[in-house]
Amino acid sequence: MSWRIVYIEAADQMKLYLDNLKVVREGQEVLIPLSDIHTILIDNQKTLVTARLINKLAEYHIIIIFCDEKHMPNVYGISPHSHYQTSLVLLKQVKWDDKIKGVMWQKILQIKITNQANILEYLRKDELCVNQLKALAGDVQFADETNREGYAAKLYFNTLFGENFIRNRDSYDGINSALNYGYIVIRSCIARSVAAHGLEPALGIGHHSQYNAFNLVDDLIEPFRPVIDLWVALVSGHNELLTKERRQQLVHYISTSTVQIGNQKQTILNAIDILIQTFIKSMNNGNPELLVYPTNVVAV
User: Fold this and answer.
1) d(CA 270, CA 282)
2) At which positions is Mn(2+) bound (predicted)?
3) Which residues is 104 bridged to in the sheet?
4) Which of these, 73, 189, 215, 240, is most buried using a 10 Å CB contact count?
5) How many domains, in total, are found in the chain?
6) Whether residue 116 is found in the same domain as residue 138
7) Are 70 and 125 in the same domain?
8) What residues are designated binding site?
9) How many Å apart are CA 165 and CA 43, to the nearest integer?
10) Residue 29 lies in domain
C-alpha cells in the first residue's frame, strides 16, 4: 500500500525511470519507487514534469498537486479512470436516497464534533466547553437541520485558539494559513481515495454546491479536520509565517502519524481509505452503522 507524500520544494525536472519517480536537481538524481507514493506535492513554480510521468502516475492512482505562488495547493492531477467499475459504482451512488444521505451526514458531523471535543480534552482546555461539544454532538439532527455544526465550530475554535480568533479561509495569519494548508493536503488525499474507489466526487451528501467539483470530498474530510487542528495548536502561532520548514513538517505529519480507527492504530492515509470503503458499504446497504471512523484523532 502506498504511504509516502513526496514534497518537492525545489527540482529542475521530474520524470519517469522504469517504475520510479526520478527527481533531478542541479545534476543530482533521486529515485523513489512509484509503488511507495501516495501523493506528490510540488511547491515551486519552475519544476518541469514530463507527460510520460503524469500518465504513469495515473496508472498508479497517485495524485499530483501543484502549489501556487503563495505555496497553497492549487491544481490537482487525478485520473478519472482509477476504478475498474466506475460506471457501476456511479449507478449505485446516484441511487442513494435522501434519507440515508441525511442520516449519514448527521453521523459524520457527530463524529467530527466528538473528535473536536477529544482534541480540547487532550490539550486540557476548558472542561465546560468539552462537555458542551459532547452535548452538541448528541444534539445533531437529521441532515444537521438545526446547524449544530456551525455553533460547535465557533465554540471549538474560540476555545482552541482564543476568543479573538476568527476562522477565515482567505486569511494568511499564522493559524489560518496553517489550517488552510493542512486541510487542503488532507482534502487532496481524500480526493485521491474517492476517485480510486470509483465515486463521483461532485455528488455530496451534505455539501451540494453546483460550483464545487469535490462536494463528496468535503463531506468525508470532516472527521479528519481535528487532526490538522491539533498539529496547528501545538506548533503554530498567530504571528508565525507558514515557512517551508513548517509546510514540510505538516506534510510529514500527515503521511506518518497514526489515529485510532476500528479499534486499531492506522496511519492517517490508511484511515482515510478505511472510512471511504466502509462509507460506500454503508450507503449501498442503507446502514450507517457499517461506517468505520476515527474515534481518537490525537495522532502520534
Assistant:
1) 18
2) 149, 207, 222
3) none
4) 189
5) 2
6) yes
7) no
8) 149, 207, 222
9) 28
10) 4-77
**pLDDT on residue 98:** 97
Please tell me whether residues 35 and 159 are part of one structural domain: no
104/22 Cα distance (integer angstroms): 42
Residue 213 Cα to chain centre, angstroms? 15
pLDDT of residue 228: 96
CA-to-CA distance for 55 and 61, rounded, in angstroms?
10
Among the candidates 77, 105, 129, a domain finishes at 77
Phi, psi of 166 (to 5 degrees): -125, 120
Q: What span, in angstroms and rounded, lies between the C-alpha atoms of 102 and 79?
A: 29
Please tell me whether residues 104 and 148 are part of one structural domain.
Answer: yes
From 77, 109, 142, the end of a domain falls on: 77
Q: Are 220 and 185 part of one and the same domain?
A: yes
62 and 143 in a single domain? The answer is: no
Query: Which residues contribute to the annotated binding site for Mn(2+)?
Result: 149, 207, 222
Which stretches of the chain drop beneath a pLDDT of 50?
none
Say if residue 54 is in the same domain as residue 125. no
CATH number at 32 reads 3.100.10.20
Instruction: Say yes or no: 97 and 227 in one domain.
Output: yes
pTM of the model: 0.91
pLDDT, position 297:
86
- Quick one: how far is CA 4 from the chain centroid? 15
Using an 8 Å Cβ cutoff, are 178 and 243 in contact? no
